[in-house]
Amino acid sequence: MTISPGDSSGVTPDPTSRVVGSDDEAIFRIMANASPVLLWVAATDGLCTFFNQTWLDFTGRTMAEEYGVGWAENVHAEDFERCMTYYIEAFRERRRFEMEYRLRRHDGVYRWILDRGVPRIMPDGEFQGYIGSCVDITERRDREAALQAALEARDEFVSVAGHELGTPLTALRLQLENLTRWTGRAGATVSADDVRARLHSLQTEADRLGALLETLLDVSRVDAGTYPLRLDSVDLQALGQRVVKHLEGVALNAGCQLVWDSGESSERPILARRDSLRLERVLINLLSNAFKYGAGRPVRVHLSSDGEQVSLTVSDQGLGIPPDKLELIFERFERIDPEHKYGGLGLGLWLARRLMDDMGGQLTATSRPGEGSSFLLRLPAQLPPSGSL
């Protein structure tokens, strides 16, 4: 048997003649039309002879349009062949079936449908076709897709986090083992410079491990909604200078000259009513990113205000960002380098933007591949107290 849309063997029968013919069928039709699910009935030749009012309301079509295989005209083109093949095979074998496909709704939107069909077998064993029910499972499939994406993101996160945390931890262990063997060797002479060099190496790995753990904790707090927002009057001038001074050693290790520039406003406070701890975290993340991708080249931090908006820009002269990734880099686990040569969790920029969004600020990026990147923070300014200038 071959079924195709619009095929009714050249005959256009009365759409109701094969359904309504007895009191039982009349009762069935009343019950079917009152059902909240989409119902259909097919005869022994596989052609559909009845659709309840819920189905007709869903598709926005008449019984005559749906009759036979007219209903299949609304099946998504990508699902049609699979759907019809499975449907025909079930009819031939006279078995229950269940399938999912996309069906066009009256507004033109395709919705995922779960269609279940069962054979109609009379008490004497006579096969009289099928009766089926359909439910809209679009929301369920969306939830399943979101869950699957979350599971994949979790697996990727565990893999990346395990690798990134394991690297400094392994280095720490090796350095400690070497230091232990070195100092325990008979007759070994240990100079103060040697000790300082090895301790510096240990401190570097410990700082790296601490930064990764701090990022993980911050992400966990943001996701759980336990990262409190504490608004206060923040002097961006003092905050920026404090962060820059704090990261001077990190910049030195990366071979970057770290430049703080607040221009003509260097002698006066630039205020914003925001969360100072969050702003520090954002600036630290942006500078750490600049040191990573712009290693060996200058990194500049520029602060300015026009009286209404405060702008803080972190610029590097490093790898740069392809145009198609300027927004993607703010997503979880996204990295600028496709081969992950630079390490990291791929969470720093995502976290920075989330923190800025929570404070009512903006974080955007501009870049030219091979020439560096600039990240711009914008916040509403707060007027200084009267007489303070």
Give a brief outline of the structure.
This protein is an alpha+beta fold and 389 residues long. It has 10 helices and 12 strands.
Attribute tags:
389 residues, alpha+beta, Beta-Lactamase, Helix Hairpins, Heat Shock Protein 90, 3 domains, 5-stranded antiparallel β-sheet, 10 helices, 12 strands, elongated
Notes on the protein architecture:
The chain has 389 residues and is α+β, with helices and mostly antiparallel strands. It contains 10 helices and 12 strands. 43% of the residues lie in helices and 21% in strands. The strands form 3 sheets. Strands 2-1-5-4-3 form a 5-stranded antiparallel sheet, with helices on both faces. A hairpin with a 5-residue loop joins β3 (97-104) and β4 (110-121). The longest helix has 47 residues, at 138-184. The N and C termini lie far apart (90 Å). The model is unreliable at 1-21 (pLDDT under 50).
Helical content stands at: 40-55%
User: What is the CATH topology classification name of the largest domain?
Assistant: Heat Shock Protein 90
Topology order in helix (H) and strand (E) letters? HEEHHHEEEHHEHHEEHEEHEE
On the 0-100 scale, what is the average pLDDT?
A: 81
In spatial order, strands of the major sheet run: 2-1-5-4-3
Secondary structure class reads alpha+beta
Note poorly predicted spans: 1-21
C-alpha end-to-end distance: 90 Å
Radius of gyration based on Cα positions: 34 Å
The main β sheet shows up as: 5 strands, antiparallel
Number of helices: 10
Number of strands: 12
The CATH homologous superfamily of the largest domain is called Histidine kinase-like ATPase, C-terminal domain
Question: CATH first level of the largest domain: which class?
Answer: Alpha Beta
Count of discrete structural domains = 3
Strand content: 15-25%
Mass-distribution shape = elongated
CATH architectural category of the largest domain: 2-Layer Sandwich
